[in-house]
Amino acid sequence: MASFHPQGERHEEFIQFVRRELQPGIDGDGEKVEFICPTKTTKWWKKRGENRIARAINHNINARAATIEKAYLNIFSILVYSSKMYLIKDFISHGFQDQQLPLLDPEKFGKDLAMVRDMKDFCENQWMFCPVVFSSTMPMDKRTIPRRQILPIKDEKITTTKANHSKSVIRVVTLHSDCYDRDWSSSYLGSFEQNKRCFMVLEYATEGSLLELYRRDGPPATPEERRYFLYGMMGLIKAVDKIQNLGGGSRNQRTGFAHRDIKPSNILVFPGRQGLYSAGFTMKLADFDTATCEQPIDEALVSFHDNDGDKTYCAPEASRVYTYEEWTIRPVPLSSDIWSLGCVFSEALVWVAGRMAAVDKAASDRRTEIQTYHSLQIDASLGDCFHNTQTALRCVLESQQAAVKALKGPTNLSGTVCTLVKQKMLVPSPLGLHTQTSFENGASIQQISPATRNHDEIQGIPSFDRSLVLSTNGLDTSQAITDTPSQTRSPDYLHSIYTAPINNSWEPHRLYPSRDQQAPSSLYGTTIIEDVIHYRRIKAKKHRLPGYDQFRRRMGRRHFIFVIDDSDSMRGLKNEVLRTVEALIWLVKDIDLTCPEIRFTSKPSKRYPPAIAAMASRFYPMDKLASLLRHWENPDEADRECNMRYALDQIFNDASIVDPKKPTSVLIFTNGKWEGGPIEDRGVEGCITNVIGKMREKNISNTGFTFQFVSFGDDQDGLNRMNYLDDYALFGGSPGNRE
C-alpha cells in the first residue's frame, strides 16, 4: 500500500498538488492542453521546514537532495509524477539537467529495452512540466521548440496590422504570470519556431502608440496628470541612452546603436496603476527595424548606412535635399536620435496644451515656413519637418513657447521640458549639418603671415575647420562675412548654425544623449600640409590621415573651385600657394561631384581641367590635376596687379556655377593686393552682393553655395582690404543690418 512507504505518501501528495495547480495552455497544433509552471513545483519542494526532497528519495537511490535541488528539480518532479524516480541517478550520471529539457530521444541513456520503455514514459509526461518560460536566465531568442511544448497562453485575441502584410497575424495574448519574468520583459520577450511557424513574443501596450493616444485626443487635464505624462515622456531619454550604450563603459566607447526612426507611432504607451495618467505611466521605444550601429560602413559595399526613418522627425544632418545625395553614403551620428526625440517632446507639449487642433496648426505652420523660405525641401519630402536642414524652424520654437504659456508659464514642469528641448535637443549637431560642412555664405578671410608662419604649415581654413584642420601654430584670425537674413527670408534662425569656440577640450560624452553645441574648433585633431604631402608621397590611404574620415563624412558631396591669384605680386608666394592648393585638391578629389576645378585670375574664364574632361573625373589622376597648377609658370601672362572684381565677375557670371542642385564651394587664394583704387572700393563687395542675390533668387541654402578668401603674405594694404571685407563691407545692407 502507498501508505506503507513514506516516499509513496510524499509522491501522492505531490501528484495531488500538481493536479490542483494545472493551468490551460496551447501546444504547437493549437490544441488546448494543461501544464504546471516549474516555479510552482519548485516552491512546493522547497517549502521551509519540511525537507520534502530528502523525504521523497528512496533510500536505495544514491542521490543527494542538494544535487537535485540545484540542477535536477524539474526532472525530479516529472519522475515523481510518473513513479519513475529511480531514473534520477541516470540523469545525474549523464549530466542531463533541467535547463536541457525537453528530452526528445528515449535512447539518450542507452538502448536497454526496459530503460527505453521507462524513458518513453518520461518523454510523454514531461510536457506538462516544461512549458515555454520567458526569463532573463533562460533566453528565448530564435529557438526552435518542439511541436508538443506548451505555450503558457491564458487567453488571446486576433488583430490585424495596418500594413499590407497578408501573411502576418498579430495575436494579442495574456501569458500566465508565473511563466515570464516581469522585470525582464520590456518590449521583446523572445522569438521561436514551432510546428513550421515563426513566433515573436512582444509586450502588449494596452494604450497603443503615442500617435494613437494623440488621435483619441484626451490629453492629461490636471497638473498632476500632466506631471505623470511628462515624467513618462522623459523616460524616453533613458531609453535612448540605454540602446546607445548597451555594453556600458565610457561614453566615447559605445557598443550600442541608434534607433534612427523615433516618432510618435514608434513609442508605446502603458497606463498607470490608478488610471491612464497616474503613477506607473510609461512610454517605451519600439520598432527597431531601421536601427544601425554608429560605425560607418565600408564604402566599397553596395549598401547604405543612413537614416531610413520618418523624414518629419529626422535630424538636419540626416536630411537629403539634393538629388545626388541619394547615392552618397553619409553615416548619421548617434545624436540624431536626440533631435528626433526633441521633435516628439515639442509636439507632445503642443498636444498637452491645445489638443490635436494645436498639433495640426503647428504642422501647418511648419509647412508654410518651409514653403516660404526653404522650398527646396519640399521636393525632398521634407515639407513638414522641424528644421530648415540646419536649425529648428522659428515656428517650432514659437509653438513650444505658446504651449508653455497656455500651461501656466515657464516655472512648471512643461517650462523645464521646453527649455530642455530648445537648448539641448533641437540644436544643430556638433558632428555636422545638412551638407556635412561648416562653410558659410559670403567670404571668410584667413590671414597667413610669414612672420608667424611655419614654412610648411598654413592656418586652419574655416572651410575645413571642425573637420580636418590645417594648422599654423594655433593662429585663428578668421571671421565670417555671412549673408544676414533680410525680411524676405526666414529671420533669426536661417544662419544660427553651429560654430565651435576656440580653446575648449573635446568631451565626446557631451554628445550623448544631448546635442550640445559646445565643441572645439579642432574637433578631429590637427593635420599640417606636410602631413598631407607625406601621405600622398608614400601613397598611403587617405583614411589613415588623422580626422580624414570624419572630414569626408561632414563635407558630403559637392563641387570645389580653387581660384588662384597669379598676379605679379603673388609670385614670391607661389610655392606656398601651390603646395597648399595641391594638398587640398588631393583631400577633396574623391568627394567632388565631378572634378576639382582650378582657375587663375589672369584668365578667369578658362577652367582647368576643361568641362568635358572634368565629367570623366574618375579617369583624371591626381598627378594630372597637380600638373594643371603649372599654368602659373609663365610670368608674361600674369598681371602686375590682380583685377579681382573682373576675375570673380567672369567666374560667377557662369549660370552653371550658382546652381541649387549642385552644392559648390569656392576658395580664393590671394594676398589682397588688387587694382581698383582705395581699400573701400565697392568692386569685389559688389560682386559678392550679386552672388548673394543669385542665391536668394534660386532659394539656395547657407551651405548650398559658399566662397572663401584665403589670405597669404603680410602686405598691409592687402590685409586692410581683406579686413574691410571681413568687418565693414555692407554687401547691399545698411550699417545696422549687414548683408
From TrEMBL:
Annotated GO MF terms: ATP binding; protein serine/threonine kinase activity
The keyword Lipid metabolism appears for this protein: no
UniProt KW keywords: Kinase, Transferase
InterPro entries cross-referenced by the UniProt entry: Kinase-like_dom_sf (IPR011009), Prot_kinase_dom (IPR000719), Ser/Thr_kinase_AS (IPR008271), vWFA_dom_sf (IPR036465)
Residues of the Protein kinase domain: 98-426
Organism domain of life: Eukaryota
Statement: the UniProt record of this protein carries the keyword Transferase: yes
Any single Pfam family the record assigns to this protein: Pkinase
Protein name: Serine threonine kinase
Species of provenance: Fusarium sporotrichioides
Taxonomic lineage of the native organism: Eukaryota, Fungi, Dikarya, Ascomycota, Pezizomycotina
